[in-house]
Amino acid sequence: MQSVPAPASPPVESQVSAPMVSFIARRLLVSVLILIAASLIMYVLAAYSGDPLSDLEGSSSSNKEALIQARVHAQHLDVIPPLRWFLWLGGVAKCVVPVAGGCDLGTTFQNQPVAQLLPQAVGSTLQLVTASFLLAIVLGIALGIITALRVYSGFDYTVTTVSFFLFSLPSFLMAVLLKSFIALGYNNFLAHPVLSPVSLVVCGVVVGVVLQLVVGGSWQRRLYIFLGSGAVTALVLWYMSATGWFTRPALGPVVVILLTAAIGFVVVSILAGAHNRRAWITGGINVVLAIAAYFGLQWLFAISTAGTIAILAVLTLVIGIVSGAIVGGPDRGLMMRIGAITAVLSGGVVLIDRFMQSWHNYSELVGGRPIATVGSQTPSLSGDVWITGLDSFTHLLLPTVSLLLISFASYTRYARSGMLDVFDQDYIRTARAKGMPERTVVVRHAVRNMLIPIATIIATDVGALLGGAVITEFVFAISGMGALFNSGLSRTDVNPVMGYFLVIAITAIAFNFLADLAYAALDPRVRVR
Amino acid sequence: MSTIQGSPIEPTIPDGTGLAVPGEAPGESQGRIVLRRFLQNRVAVIALIVYVVVVVFSISAIGLGPIPGWWRYGYTQLNPQLNQGAPTLSLLPTWLGGDGIHFGAHPFGQDRIGKDYFALTMRGIQNSALVMIVIGVFATVVGVVVGAVAGYFRGWVDSLLMRITDVFIVIPALVIGAVVGKTSNGLGAWGLALLLGLVSWMVTARLVRAEFLSLREREFVDAARVAGASDGRIIFRHILPNACGVIIVSSTLLIASAILLETALSFLGYGIKPPDSSLGLLIAQNQAAFSTRPWLFWWPASFIVLLALCANFVGDGLRDAFDPRSRRFSLRRTREPEPEPGEGVVHAGQPLTTADEPEGRA
What we know:
The structure holds 2 protein chains of 2 kinds. Chain A is an all-alpha fold. Chain A is 75% helix and 0% strand. Residues 1-15 of chain A have low confidence and may be disordered. Chains A and B meet through α1, α6, α7, α18 and α19 of A and α5, α6, α10, α11 and α12 of B.
């Protein structure tokens, strides 16, 4: 893959052609060979990393010899590791060849087939990493764009410093920190949920300082923003504290209406600008529908299952797209995007409100200490979908935050430097020269081009996603892929380690390949060689 | 990757490429220009000084190998518990209501079995710094050799070496690090560092190869070849000095990630083992005692962050110093064509390219 500006660039249709097919075929072949070689290295290293019988040899049980014999026999420990690898590879080959019947990735020391453990582990890893991954991308890119627009300002330096700090914070430190201080602190706070005047002032000052840095401008404007936002924050927190909001959180009709309206306003003014009447109509329809759903659907929420919520979510998306398409006009695609984004976000507000209504019940159920520090669910908890949803939320909150903080720093840096590179291009100067509004230059010209390299980074990161977070899973005792690897390796149990390796290596190779293809598809200057 | 290929570092830098610092004498060597640009970056220089001071302090405190340090306790020695093991370090002078500035018997406190935490932390810094530097140097050497050979000879050598690189790069660093770290069980910090270095050279190799691929087509390489220089001489005397920017920067960033790798592995139990000490190991050992003895957490944690932060800042400063294209871009500047007052010289024909400001860290 080379980023060569093609002098006489061929039409796009011819990209899927003979050279493309042979490129893909070669890539696949090489990838399989790399995978096999890497698995050999991994297998031999893992097998020689310790003594697989150490736990049995140290045991005092009477049938020790028989246990050792059984394990040696089951795991072929009498065969030296490089040769044992062939046995393992033979089992893996059965997964690829359909006639051989069934996958054989070996068994763990407890005689559980690895092929059965993997889907379960992948499931809980995905549950853990998906939210943090998506949030890291969205927040990281948004913050990167803001810092690029306010480049070399106080805000930019602050974010740069903070992201360096996050780069330098090992993930286990972050996890332990969150677990020992945030979780315990918040749970203790909930026992007496009243904010002291000092903490109100501190929160107000912090919010004010951050907001005035983001908005920038003259010092008077900054001062007003600092005072205004600080006072509003302190007042809101005081109100929440005085009304016992922290134990019985709720948005209520007024806040839901205000929030959905704000969402519609922000989405329309960023994506379409304030002068686009059709965009206002699209956004307005979806905001009104979300508010109507809030008032009209509570009876349905009360008897909902996960399936109902999923159907409602899909319905929301469809309504958003369809409403955009009906309003349409010359820029139908944009309207559909606005409709979809507004609908999904304001639907989210309604959903969050419903979850909040169940918070108090949930909090009572788990003994008033809702933020969990281990595992991924409370054992033997029964309740409707809202209770179990909150249970997952409180368990995944801290691991998600710890993963989020670490990965989002790098997206901020990528997005920032990408934006600065793009601002340097001639087409941005052209767009400004022909009198485009700054919003159009940034949203339509700069951000879209900045996203091309980031798309490939994201694709590569998705490949690494299934590897899970070995350390985060370890600290929070979540039994995902990382835990499978870690527990396998600590006992020198090679088969689960290799099962883990297979999944992450295949996804990494596949998504790297997709990243290259995506780059070729998104950037017409790149051609396949 | 394309940015690396696109920015070969010139052996001599012609004037007016936007690199020239105002008032710079023409004909300065590249090394001096880089040094000057690096020294202008205050954050990076301070980070370098802090890093060296911390490492030297830790070595002098508990000694190196057989040489004893100035601190009175060893890191394996058990001492009687004083005041529940709370830190005796006091930094508040008496006139501010504190106890006066003194170290006390156990400045960082003691752990649950009475070991002096200052000695343990210093030993941890020593081990972590050792692992960082050995991984950095060793992986850089391997990476440079692989990358240089692949990029210079091209053809099947290149294909073979790059496929080997691909094989290693498929396995995530933490995973292969954990496996290798477990294998090194009992080899101590040196063994761990060397084995980790053996599996962390891939990124450097790719960058060096890309640099060599572009540098080998340059005229000065042709000139050397015509003059009869051997392949080894061309690689090491002609091309390598020109690729040193990429190499130094990538090895510094490797060092920054090495401390995170080492502490994470020690935390998981695959790195440095007790009775030896490592910053990650200290956190793992004392995880349960956080609510009762929080200092057992804060000392190693702050030193991990400090060392990693310093390495990152130095790496960033070096990257800016070596990159002739690095410049300070400002949206305001593109909107207003004239340079701001007090700004450095703006070269004609390159309105966006201005000199680095002193505190500049882009």
